[in-house]
Model the fold of this input.
Amino acid sequence: GENVEQHPSTLSVQEGDSAVIKCTYSDSASNYFPWYKQELGKRPQLIIDIRSNVGEKKDQRIAVTLNKTAKHFSLHITETQPEDSAVYFCAASSPGTYKYIFGTGTRLKVLA
Amino acid sequence: DTAVSQTPKYLVTQMGNDKSIKCEQNLGHDTMYWYKQDSKKFLKIMFSYNNKELIINETVPNRFSPKSPDKAHLNLHINSLELGDSAVYFCASSPTQPSGNTIYFGEGSWLTVV
Done:
């Protein structure tokens, strides 16, 4: 069945450094890849997304890259700040399927 | 204005009881979902509804029964609660099928079965 693998499961970085989270999906029909941030005790919220016809997308300190051939996509956070500390989820969705398949999450800690 | 609202936020109940969680969205979306987040933080789809019709039932025990009286509401009833049902249950919605569309989550319902 469809599967999304996410690595690493935990990531600690110093404030100001960059963080990279990687995901791999199995369904070659997947065409939409959102990233969600979940702070402690809160709901997951969309931070950035990318569609399969785009290789890269950037929004201020956050960027996402997609390699369709390798079925990989990654989240890049630059100049990390303590408020970036949260659990980040990647997801993949395919046309005609009424669901996202989520990765297993990455707990990011930004150390001041 | 809360886009996706669910009640109750916290629920502590004994094994064997029956409980319900209610969800409403005011975004005009056609599709609604229930996701379960366990203690390891894994987010797993339980059900998807589109315009009140069940689209996905992701091998959830039949003790879980969703009901969508209209496309703005999706409730979840759980019979004979078990310890393993303890989790956070998130209701969510999207304009239509999620491919290419953002899913918006409710605040979650923390269910603890004792």
About this structure: The mean pLDDT of chain A is 95.
